[in-house]
Amino acid sequence: MVRELSSPQRQIFQLKVSLSDVTPLVWRRVLVPGGYTLDRLHRVLQHVMGWQDCHLHSFEIDGLQYGEPDPDGELTVRDELDTRLDAVVGKGSRFRYTYDFGDWWEHDITVEDAFGADPGERYPICVTGARACPPEDVGGPFGYRTFLVALADPGHPDHEPMREWIGRPFDAEAFVADRATTLARRLC
Q1: Ramachandran angles phi, psi of 81, nearest 5°
Q2: Residue pLDDT, tens place only, 71-113
Q3: 3-state class of 96 per DSSP?
Q4: What's this model's pTM, rounded to 2 decimal places?
Q5: What distances in angstroms separate CA 74 from CA 57, 65, 69, 159, 173, one per listed residue?
Q6: Geometric angle at alpha carbon 185, from 179 and 188, rounded to 5°
Q7: Distance of alpha carbon 160 from alpha carbon 68, whole angstroms
Q8: What sequence ranges are listed for the domain Plasmid pRiA4b Orf3-like (predicted)?
Q9: Are the beta carbons of 42 and 80 closer than 8 angstroms?
Q10: All domains of the chain, ordered by start, with CATH?
Q11: For residue 179, what are the contacts with CB-CB under 8 A and spacing of at least 6?
């Protein structure tokens, strides 16, 4: 008798991603395969948060740095292309993702759950979240607070320069999880 071996079920991690030092909190809850490399997780985070992937980034997990290797060898960073998420974190793990070393956007990430993939589902999925991501190059958390104050007050001396700089309407409360999921699936 020949027995068919079933393939192991893919593990899905439920991640809570929160942007540090921004009030009110900007956050997302995403479902990603544990087999994703950290490079692929970076791309998912870019799309679900609303960033444009214009800057450097790194992950800090258990005191180790992961990212794109420095061609000059000046920074000790483990290669994110060679590192699977499920090899470095598990349920209950906490780690940090930093994007844009100038503005220094720190994201606190918690692995809230780990479970088998639904065979009828496509991943990644942005389940929920709150608030729009700050615009690129706004100046980090302090610059973002200044930006929001200026936009909210037509009498503020920086109101018009900030409106011109952003070049589009900006609603800090706006976030649509389905749109984030579509972007992450299409571009990751």
Answers
A1: -70, -25
A2: 776 678 999 999 999 999 999 999 999 999 999 999 999 999 9
A3: strand
A4: 0.91
A5: 16, 13, 10, 41, 40
A6: 120
A7: 38
A8: 11-176
A9: yes
A10: 11-131+173-187 (3.10.290.30)
A11: none
